[in-house]
């Protein structure tokens, strides 16, 4: 069996990464990767691939192809196809993150700030889409959006691309996957009280430098309790953009406890409030001790300590004068 990627655990050393970029820093090899993606069925013989790439010199073609075989290209029974690493690299090339940069100056798209009613603006710079209120410094959303996506949405659709890509990012993190290197990441509940109170969920990747943070509201927005609560009040969380949802834009919950962190957040819709209590739950530090009979989840790798977040919900009336229907 072929082992296209012997470093499937993702632990590339700096030297290996330099070699990776050297391998791909060549026009012909990039063309081979792109052509191999384009051939019917995603695989080709040597001569089919050579024809697809359009290179006459078989010796030269063979030289470059062999540089890719093993890591980016798999060879089985004299047929070539992209390895998983090759597909990832191709995705990065196509999304434009290594090659393009573009800027869209701030424009209005017709929605107003929930705090002050000023016209919201959207902009794109440094591969980040941003929706912000020109007068409230805290009313701002920003996320990485690949340039290629923007090209397809159109320049005055930055806000739409932000909403869509933002949802994908939130979902990926909620599933415990790093958006950069696809390693496992764990949620960490944080409550900061400097200047403005901010409650957020942070995901620090141990395999790559990516540290991500999402608001508490975004962490909760896919929870069935939150979805159905809004549904009952005529709000579709799938279609309503981030900046129209107060619970997503409010930065803070109320801190009930610092150690462990426990935060309470009120989500309002109509005349009702959904009260969410969010607590961080660390695996105990002596997690490698015998835990038989405790009912705790047993981890395959006892040296890793994982954190998770527990949420409980309660409903309450928004005020005393609530009218029963
Ligand atoms: Zn505002
Ligand atoms: Zn990562």
Shape: elongated
The oligomerization state is: single chain
* Helical segment count: 10
Strand content: 25-35%
**Which parts are unreliable, with pLDDT below 50 for 5 consecutive residues or more?**
1-10, 285-302, 320-325
End-to-end CA span: 67 Å
Strand order of the largest sheet: 4-5-6-7
Which distinct ligands sit in these coordinates?
Answer: zinc ion
User: How big is the Rg?
Assistant: 25 Å
Question: H/E element string?
Answer: HHEHHEEHEEEEHHEEEHHHEEEE
Number of E-state strands: 14
* Count of discrete domains: 3
Strand pairing plus helix content: what structural class?
alpha+beta
Mean pLDDT: 83
Domain DUF7351: 111-281
Protein name: ArsR family transcriptional regulator
InterPro entries: ArsR-like_HTH, DUF7347, DUF7351, WH-like_DNA-bd_sf, WH_DNA-bd_sf
Region (Disordered): 278-325
Question: Would you mind describing this structure in some detail?
Answer:
- The protein has 325 residues and is α+β, with helices and mostly antiparallel strands.
- Helix content is 30%, strand content 27%.
- It has helices at residues 14-24, 27-38, 46-53, 58-68, 84-95, 147-153, 158-174, 216-220, 224-232, 246-249, and strands spanning 43-45, 73-76, 79-82, 104-112, 119-125, 128-132, 140-144, 188-192, 198-204, 211-215, 254-257, 262-269, 272-282, 307-317.
- α2 (27-38) crosses α3.
- 23% of the residues are buried.
- The structure holds zinc ion (2 copies).
- The site of one zinc ion has 8 residues, from loops.
């Amino acid at each position: 069996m072929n082992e296209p990627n012997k470093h499937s655990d993702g632990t590339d050393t700096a030297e290996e990464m330099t070699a990776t970029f050297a391998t791909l820093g060549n026009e012909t090899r990039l063309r081979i990767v792109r052509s191999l993606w384009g051939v019917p069925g995603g695989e080709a013989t040597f001569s089919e691939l050579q024809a697809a790439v359009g290179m006459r010199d078989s010796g030269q073609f063979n030289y470059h192809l062999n540089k890719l075989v093993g890591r980016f290209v798999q060879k089985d029974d004299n047929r070539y196809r992209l390895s998983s690493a090759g597909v990832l690299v191709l995705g990065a090339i196509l999304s434009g993150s290594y090659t393009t940069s573009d800027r869209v100056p701030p424009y209005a798209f017709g929605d107003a700030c929930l705090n002050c009613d000023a016209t919201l603006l959207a902009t794109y710079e440094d591969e980040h889409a941003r929706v912000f209120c020109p007068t409230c410094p805290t009313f701002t959303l920003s996320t990485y959006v690949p340039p290629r996506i923007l090209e397809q949405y159109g320049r005055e659709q930055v806000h739409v691309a932000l909403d869509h890509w933002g949802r994908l990012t939130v979902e990926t993190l909620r599933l415990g996957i790093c958006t950069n290197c696809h390693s496992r990441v764990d949620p960490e509940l944080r409550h900061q009280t400097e200047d403005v109170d901010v409650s957020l969920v942070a995901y620090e990747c141990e395999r790559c430098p990516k540290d991500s943070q999402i608001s508490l509201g975004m962490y909760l927005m896919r929870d069935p309790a939150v979805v159905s609560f809004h549904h009952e009040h005529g709000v579709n969380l799938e279609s309503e953009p981030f900046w129209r949802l107060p619970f997503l834009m409010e930065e803070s919950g109320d801190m009930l406890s610092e150690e462990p962190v426990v935060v309470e957040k009120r989500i309002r819709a109509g005349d009702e409030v959904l009260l969410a209590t969010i607590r961080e739950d660390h695996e105990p530090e002596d997690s490698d001790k015998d835990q038989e009979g405790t009912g705790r989840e047993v981890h395959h790798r006892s040296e890793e300590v994982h954190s998770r977040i527990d949420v409980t919900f309660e409903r309450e009336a928004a005020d005393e004068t609530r009218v029963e229907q």
